[in-house]
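QA checklist item 7 of 12: single-chain prediction sanity check.
[x] sequence parsed
[x] length recorded as 310
[x] structure emitted
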Amino acid sequence: MKPGNGTRISAFILLGLSKEPELEPLIFGLFLSMYLITVCGNLLVILATISDSHLHTPMYFFLSNLSFVDICFTSTTIPKMLLNIQTQSKVVTYAGCITQMFFFILFIGLDDFLLTVMAYDRYVAICHPLHYTVIMNPKLCVLLVLTSWILSALHSLMHSLMVLQLSFCTHTEIPHFYCELNMVVHLSCSDPYLNDMLMYSAAGLLGGGTLAGILYSYSQIVSSILRMSSTRGKYKAFSTCASHLSVVSLFYGTSLGVYLSALDSQNSHSSATASVMYTVVTPMLNPIIYSLRNKDIKKALGDLLGRKPS
């Protein structure tokens, strides 16, 4: 790499989660375990929804898509991190960094959109039950997922192309275990003003917009549940939303924690540690939450694994 202002570098250095070499075997084992649990758990949910005809409904269609996205989401960061620890190398190529960044932004955007679509699905199911099958028809379900992919891809492509316009000099160390957009932008020796404006605007429109959609859906759901005269009906309606609400709270709660830690520019290590929550822990817990709180999923998993659920 040739130093100098405006020079195009060939690689970055990912510093990882710890500077202590003796902790690396522990980190490797922990993250490998969490990655395998994430992949296996989400894969089981996908297979269960495909194999059981009773789960061929909009709610489980969206859930299987969310599980697929979570597998892809963790696969953009963890395998590279594990490889770096195993090979004792912290290098990621410039092209590899941009590619990782593109897919990371793509899949986190898809998580946002799919959680919003799932909230809309629950809103229609509870607030307009008689028209549910008409409104949430297969064509609309596919269109909602396809639109989520297109919007997420455009959003990710926009950020990636903006990063490609930046010049990088001699400082190439990223205090993270993956190529995090904000950190990469601020390593540049170019003016990051436009990139910053794009990041804040996109976060406000996408993150704020999807969260507003979820909150509106649940405000209408709660209002409908409170108007129900039957206690059993209230419990049944709430139980259908409990798993999704838990996942939403976990995802947005951890994302907010990462955002707040990122505001402390003097402590990038805390930001990297906090990122573990929504990049690894949340995708790992999603299938567990849905499996524990959903009798249909438990039954389908029991049939898939060749035994009756207890």
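[x] summary fact logged: The chain has a mean pLDDT of 87.
[ ] second reviewer sign-off
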